Amino acid sequence: MVEGKKYSQVSILAAGAIPFLAPWRWADMKKWLCSIAGLSLALAGSLAAQAQTPAVPPPNILNIQVDNIKPYEDGPYDKFASESAALSQQLKDPTHVLGMESLTGSPRALYLSGHDSFEALQKNEEWLLGDAATDAKLDALDAREGLYVSEVHYTIWHYRPDLSNNVAGADIPHSHYWDVAIFHMRSGHDEKFEELTKLYRDANLKSGQNIPWATYEGLLGVTDAYLVLMPMTSLKDEDTGLAHQKDFVAALGDHGKVQMNKLSEESVASVEDNIWMVIPEWSTVEKSWIEADPQYWAPEPAAKHTPARKAPTAP
To answer: Which domains does the chain have, with CATH numbers?
Structure first.
């Protein structure tokens, strides 16, 4: 991303309203089975309440930016990020951004952008030629960002349809929370992730839940890693998962549990798993998203209360 053009360069879901769904959460290696069962059924509860949207395949290329926010600077950063999104809209940026704030882990901001290809990504990077006045506004925002952010990290991911399942099954415009998991594989063991995914998919279908998820493989800025993303309409989906952990484990069976544990111990180095909350003020999303949930994405400003005038009294 070119410095000074944060929101002009990050475009979320350029291919349209795209369902990103993850099959599991994984807090740590020893609790893997409980976590995968819980999240699979949490997603099942989420899907029951979601309206179906037209199927649009996930973008081929996913660009992610993570801002590490300095401790106790959340408030000033929020103002900065909101002003950045507003400037993007003012400049008529044709791209889209989904901004989120971490609810677990250290304070961070996450920005997602989708592209059909690297060529499309390049066009989005170059759309704004700029002028002196615009450059001055962007430079001023960059200078402010440095006060609140300790590090910025960019990664690019490639969609893996063979490791995904039923990706058209979610109502993304109404998903206000996301579970984001990154699986870091041991070098030379990427094929084991494919085996783990097949085990999960088979048990998922056997338990009667054709749960959707999308999987991405790291290309740039990250190595030997896979990304799974799960949107949730509310955190109640987590409660649903906790209440139905046994269903998935039963479908997996004893042999499946042994095989899954063996594969994970041999091939997975670590897992990052966190819950994120969407921040509409940090985002510039598809018009269809706004139309689907206008009170969330574009709420009407509160009307100012004007005291009623009293009728003049007769002298």
So the answer is: 7-288 (3.30.70.100)
